[in-house]
Amino acid sequence: MINAFKELKIKINTVIKLAKKEKKQIAFFIGNTKKNDKALFYITPIRQTENYVYFGVIVYDDLTAKEIAKKVDGKVNLIFVDTEKKTFKGRKFNKKNIVNTEKTIKENIKKSYLRFYKGNDLTVNAAENLIEARFKKEIRNISGKKILIFGTGNIGFKLGLRLIERGAAVYLFRRNKEKLKKICELINFIKPKGTDIKAKAIYKLKNNFKKYDVIVFTADSTETIKLQSKKIFKKEVLLVDVGKGMFDQKSLAVLNENKQLVHRLDVTPNLNTLIEETNTIKKFSNKKFKILKKGKFIFVSPGLLGSKDSLIVDDPLNPKKIYGLCDGQGDFIRLDNLEKQKIIYEVGELTKNKIKFD
User: Fold this and answer.
1) Residue of 172 and 249 predicted with greater confidence
2) Are 8 and 68 within 8 A, CB to CB?
3) 3-state DSSP helix/strand/coil percent for the chain, to nearest 5?
4) Taking the model in full, what pTM does it have?
5) Strand ranges, E, within 222-344
């Protein structure tokens, strides 16, 4: 325990010096995983965005998360916490426990700005972005592509649904056939009605994957695919390893020798976006929503539902920009230019401001 926390202390000091040198702020991630490990936690590499230096830890239990939160609070500007609840087994102080990192961290952070995220959703976003990038030059992009997903847990299910919604032909495989069938049925039940294509369950692997344009591995198990031939995939297939165990060592070596790339999914671009959007989120979370009657007008803050004929404006206390005239059902009344000019004139006369209709 002492060595692990000493390493964390050294890393924090390194990041503080780097951030000062680069004139950037510091972000820190606390993620969790259901995978068991002998270590208390592991530390992720230091990375940078335009405005931040960041790194983080992956924890296996709440007690460790609590200790880490106390040590980093106030030393970093932002703390991001994985909110997904996970079950782990085998930690010596408890045979089974639910990792509720969100609650634990929130109770122990007093100084740093706290934000929450879902690690699995970041992974799904990263996988979808990678697949989209592969076909960006094609008119239909992902639509019509045949995509095989190994593993239909949280990530596999969400990714399968996303890809079906975009018109891909999605094939799903997992060892538990009963769950596989139910998951495919669920995806096909909740997918948009305008999507004719359906998710299909693969109950038996034939070690011939030439019909697939993309193969994504999201399972927890390892060495699922063992090559019996060097030519079981399309030459241009996109292979994506999310679960980090798609091939055995021999098979991976054969693929690399034949220059067939296997992508280890990188969520870094998605983490960077999450960090950099924080200032926008801060402004929104601090925003004061108001409804104010002034003269014959009712001014309403953006983000609220206004009653019929009320105006959505930039600032109800001092409006300068009008976004729309409410229809009382959550939408705007369509106005012609003459009607807009009339409202601009009347609001301008009332507020003595120069009014714009956006």
Assistant:
1) 172
2) yes
3) 35, 25, 40
4) 0.84
5) 238-241, 262-264, 291-294, 297-300, 311-313, 321-325
